[in-house]
Specification:
By secondary structure, this protein is of the alpha+beta class. The chain is about 20% helix and about 30% strand. The chain is built from 13 helices and 37 strands. The strands form six sheets. Strands 6, 7, 8, 9, 11, 12, 14, 15, 16, 20 and 21 form an eleven-stranded antiparallel beta sheet that branches. A hairpin with a 5-residue loop joins strand 33 (about 640-645) and strand 34. Helix 7 (about 440-455) runs parallel beside helix 8 and helix 10 (about 540-550) runs parallel beside helix 11. The protein is globular. The structure holds (2R,3S,4R,5S)-2-(hydroxymethyl)piperidine-3,4,5-triol (DGJ).
C-alpha cells in the first residue's frame, strides 16, 4: 500500500498480523521498483524506515520477535511504544493487529484509513494518513475507541512514532526555545548515539512556550540546502512532548504527542478520543526545503484564509494601552488611514462595566460587554468611524480567561480552573484566572457574549484572541474526581470547540491567535480557526530578526504578525531607525502598534507612506512566496533572506545589520537562492531612506545563474542599517 505526496511516499506493508512502515522518503519514478526492493522481508530499511516498524507501536506488544528464527537481527518493535493503555481489567499490554486499510480519494489529496484492534480486547485504533499533490507534507492522526466494559487509562498517547533509518551515529535536533518576549529562538543540539533529546510544553495554555511544537531532525550535518532532514509539527494547543533518540543501532526514533502532566487520560467505555494531528515532511536538500513545504501546506491546506492577502493594520496596544477615549481611537484611525493602512484593531480595555470596567489589568475579563462609560457611542459608532475612513475594524478578546473581579466570576465562582481545599493562585493583575473550558456551560456563555457583539456589529471582521495566564491549581470543578487528569486534554478540546464555533458562525472574521505574544503559535490553532499569530510582545526590531527567523522555520510569513512600533522600543528602550523597523516588519505580515500622533519626527511620515505603498506591491511575494534563508542572524553581524514568488518572476531580498559590537561596512557576496537560473532579473533597491543606496545595480538585468552563483554584495553603514531589494524577471 502506497501513499504519495508531491514527491515523497510512504509504503505500508503487512508482516504476520501487523501493519508496518516499509518505506518513507522520496518517491521513485517506477512503482514496480518499490516492490522489487521489498522482496526480502528482513530488509525494509530501504531509505528512511527501520526494519519491521509498526505504524502505531503499543507498549507491551512483543509479537514481533527482535531476533527471528533465521537469526537475522531486526529491531522491529519500538522500545517505548507510542500508546500505552491500562485496560478495563487492569492489564497493561496492548497488542494491536491490523484489520483493514482503505484509501479515500478527493481532489488533490488522498487519505489512507487504517483499522487496528487489540487482539484480545475491544480496544480499537483508527490511524489516518493524508497526502496532497501540491506539497510534500503528510498529516497523520489517531482515533482511540474503547469498547471494553469499563474505562481504560492512557499513560501515553502519542500520535506519531517512526524510526528513521539514520545509518549514522548522531542526529541534530532543531527546535525553538521560547518564553515571554523571547519566542521562537532557534536552538540546535546534537544527539549522540544512545542518547535522546526532548522538547515539551506543559503549562496548559502556552503550547508554544518552553518549546514550540515543531522541529526538524537532521541526519548528521545539514545546511539550508544540503542534507537529509525530517520536519515535524504537532497541531496541538495544549501540553505536548516530542522526543528524538538515536538508538544504539543508528536508527533515529521520533515520537510526538499530547501529554497529560497530572496523570493518565481516562477514556470511558463507549467513547472515542481523537488525538492531535502530526504534520511531517522530508527533504534530501536541507532545512530550507522543510520550511518551504510546511509553509506551502499551511497556506494551501491549513490556515482558514491562507491564500488571501492580509490587511495592513494598526493595533492600539502599544499606542495607548488601557488609556483611551473615543477621540484617541478616531485619532489613531486618522493616522493609519493617512499612512495608507487598511484596518484598525482596538486592543485590551474596551469592555467591562461599573466597578469591573477594564481600565487596567485587574478586572473585567469575562465581561465582554461594551464599556459605554468609556466609549459612550457604542461599537456601532466606532464601526461607522472606521467605515468612513475605509478601514476594516478588529477587536481584542481574551476568551479563555476571567478576572476574579468580574460579573462572570461573581456569578459563577466555580467556573475557573481550581482545586478543592487549595487557595487559587492568581495570575496577571493578581486577579486573573483560567476559565474551565471543559465545562460546556462556560463555553456557551463566552460564545454567547462574543457572538452577540459580532452579530450586532458585523463590521468587525478581525478578532485578536489573547490568553495571558497558565494553569495553576490544575483542577476542573466540572470533571469528577476520576477524570481530573483529563483536564489538560479536555481543556484544549474545549478551546477548539469555542473558537471553531465562533469562526464557523462568522466565517468572514479573521482571527489572530495571541497568548502573551507567541504562546499560541502552533498548527492546532493555525488550522482550526486562526489565520495568524502575534509573533511576540517583544517588538524590538533587532530582536525580532532572531524571533521571526525562528518562527518562520515552521510557520509562513502570512501567519506571523510583525508590527512597526515606537522608538525607543517600549520593552527594551532601544532606539532604532524607522527604516529598520519597517524592513523587519515587512518580512512578515506588516502592521503598526503605535499612536501615529506620537511620532515626533514628522520627517518620518513620508517614508512611512511610501513603505506602506511598497508593501502593498510586494505583499503577494512575501505572503504567498517561497522563503529562502541566506545568512543566519545567529551566525554573525548581519542576516539576509529572500522571498521568491512561486512562478519565480518576482523576489524580495532583505538584509539586516545586527548589533554585535562589530559593524562591517561591506557584506561579502551572498549567493541568492530560489531564482530561475535561466531568467534575467532587474534589481532595484526599495524602501530607501533619504535616498541612501546600499548597492549599485545597473539598469541592465542580471542572470539568475549569476545571482545564485557569484551573488550580490551590499554596504550596511551602521549596526541598525538594513536594505531591501526588489527583483523582477525581465522577458528576453
Ligand atoms: C498581551 C498581548 O500579547 C499584547 O499584545 C496585548 O494584547 C496585551 N496582552 C493586552 O492585555
Amino acid at each position: 500500500m502506497l501513499l504519495k505526496s508531491k514527491s515523497c511516499s510512504i509504503i505500508f506493508d503487512t508482516y504476520r498480523s501487523k501493519l508496518i512502515y516499509a518505506y518513507f522518503g522520496k518517491s521513485f519514478a517506477n512503482e514496480a521498483d518499490f516492490k522489487s526492493l521489498l522482496q526480502n522481508p528482513w530488509h525494509y530499511a530501504t531509505e528512511t524506515c527501520y526494519p519491521l516498524q509498526l505504524t502505531y507501536p503499543a507498549f507491551g506488544d512483543d509479537t514481533l520477535d527482535r531476533v527471528p528464527a533465521d537469526g537475522t537481527p531486526m529491531a522491529g518493535m519500538d522500545p517505548y511504544g507510542a500508546l500505552s493503555v491500562i485496560h478495563a481489567d487492569g492489564v497493561t499490554s496492548t497488542v494491536l493487529d491490523f484489520i483493514s486499510a482503505k484509501t479515500k480519494e478527493e481532489t488533490g489529496a488522498r487519505t489512507i484509513v487504517i483499522k487496528l484492534k487489540d487482539n484480545s480486547r475491544d480496544f480499537f485504533v483508527t490511524q489516518y494518513f493524508k497526502a496532497y499533490d501540491d506539497c510534500d507534507v503528510f498529516e497523520t492522526w489517531i482515533e482511540l475507541t474503547n469498547n471494553e466494559n469499563g474505562a481504560v487509562k492512557l499513560p501515553s498517547m502519542d500520535t506519531f512514532a517512526m524510526d528513521l533509518n539514520g545509518r549514522g551515529s548522531s542526529a541534530e535536533l532543531f527546535s525553538l526555545a521560547s518564553h515571554w518576549a523571547a519566542e521562537g529562538l532557534l536552538s540546535h543540539s546534537k544527539i549522540a548515539l544512545g542518547t535522546s533529546a526532548s522538547i515539551q510544553s506543559r503549562n496548559g495554555i502556552h503550547s508554544a512556550w518552553e518549546a514550540n511544537p515543531a522541529f526538524m531532525v537532521g541526519y548528521g550535518e545539514t545546511t539550508e540546502t544540503t542534507g537529509r532532514v525530517f520536519g515535524g509539527a504537532l497541531a496541538w494547543t495544549g501540553a505536548w512532548h516530542a522526543n528524538v533518540s538515536v538508538l544504539n543501532n543508528g536508527a533515529i526514533s521520533v515520537h510526538a504527542g499530547a501529554v497529560n502532566p497530572s496523570g493518565p487520560y481516562v477514556l470511558d467505555s463507549g467513547k472515542t478520543l481523537t488525538l492531535p494531528k502530526f504534520i511531517f515532511t522530508w527533504s534530501e536538500n536541507g532545512r530550507g526545503e522543510i520550511s518551504r513545504e510546511l509553509h506551502r501546506w499551511a497556506r494551501n491546506h491549513a490556515l482558514p484564509h491562507g491564500k488571501e492577502l492580509r490587511p495592513i493594520l494598526l493595533n492600539s496596544w502599544e499606542g495607548c494601552y488601557f488609556t483611551f477615549t473615543e477621540k484617541t481611537l478616531t485619532d489613531m484611525m486618522d493616522g493609519v488611514k493617512d499612512f495608507g493602512g487598511e484596518m484598525f484593531v482596538i486592543d485590551d480595555g474596551w469592555f467591562g462595566r461599573g466597578e469591573f470596567a477594564r481600565n487596567n489589568d485587574t478586572c473585567g475579563l469575562g465581561d465582554w460587554y461594551w464599556n459605554y462609560e468609556k466609549l459612550p457611542n457604542g461599537p456601532e459608532y466606532i464601526a461607522e468611524e472606521a467605515k468612513k475612513r475605509g478601514l476594516r475594524l478588529g477587536l481584542w478578546f481574551e476568551p479563555e480567561m476571567a478576572n476574579t473581579k468580574s460579573d462572570l466570576i461573581t456569578k459563577h465562582p466555580d467556573w475557573i480552573i481550581s482545586e478543592p481545599g487549595r487557595e487559587t493562585r492568581l495570575g496577571r493583575g493578581r486577579t486573573q484566572v483560567v476559565l474551565d473550558l471543559c465545562n460546556p456551560a462556560v463555553r456557551d456563555e463566552i460564545f454567547r457574549q462574543i457572538d452577540e457583539i459580532l452579530t450586532a456589529v458585523p463590521y468587525i471582521t478581525y478578532i485578536k484572541w489573547d490568553a495571558n495566564a497558565a494553569f495553576t491549581n490544575a483542577g476542573s470543578p466540572y470533571l469528577d474526581k476520576e477524570h481530573q487528569p483529563n483536564l489538560w486534554f479536555d481543556y484544549a478540546m474545549g478551546y477548539y470547540d469555542l473558537a471553531t464555533r465562533l469562526a464557523g458562525k462568522h466565517p468572514h472574521v479573521f482571527f489572530q491567535a495571541c497568548a502573551s505574544g507567541g504562546g499560541h503559535i502552533d498548527y492546532g490553532t493555525l488550522s482550526s480557526y486562526a489565520d495568524e499569530a502575534w509573533g511576540s510582545d517583544n517588538t524590538d526590531a533587532p530582536t525580532r530578526v532572531l524571533i521571526q527567523w525562528g518562527e518562520m522555520q515552521f510557520y509562513p510569513a502570512n501567519s506571523i504578525a510583525c508590527h512597526v512600533t515606537a522608538s525607543p522600543n517600549h520593552g527594551t528602550r532601544r532606539p532604532c531607525p524607522i527604516k529598520y523597523r519597517f524592513d523587519v516588519a515587512m518580512s512578515g505580515r506588516l502592521g503598526f502598534e503605535l499612536h501615529p500622533g506620537n511620532i515626533t519626527d514628522k520627517s518620518e511620515i513620508p517614508f512611512i507612506k511610501d513603505a506602506v505603498e511598497t508593501y502593498k506591491r510586494i505583499r503577494p511575494v512575501i505572503q504567498q512566496g517561497d522563503l529562502y534563508r541566506l545568512v543566519s542572524p545567529y551566525d554573525g553581524d548581519y542576516a539576509s533572506i529572500i522571498y521568491v514568488s512561486e512562478d519565480k518572476k518576482r523576489a524580495v531580498l532583505f538584509y539586516y545589520g545586527l548589533a554585535r559590537g562589530i559593524c562591517k561596512n561591506y557584506i561579502p557576496f551572498v549567493q541568492l537562492k530560489g531564482l530561475d537560473a535561466d531568467t534575467r532579473y532587474k534589481i532595484k533597491e526599495i524602501n530607501l531612506s533619504e535616498g541612501n543606496l546600499h548597492a549599485n545595480f545597473p539598469e541592465t538585468p542580471i542572470g539568475g545563474d549569476a545571482l545564485m552563483t557569484m551573488g550580490v554584495s551590499v554596504r550596511l553603514g551602521s549596526c541598525y542599517d538594513s536594505a531591501v531589494f526588489e527583483l523582477t524577471a525581465v522577458s528576453p
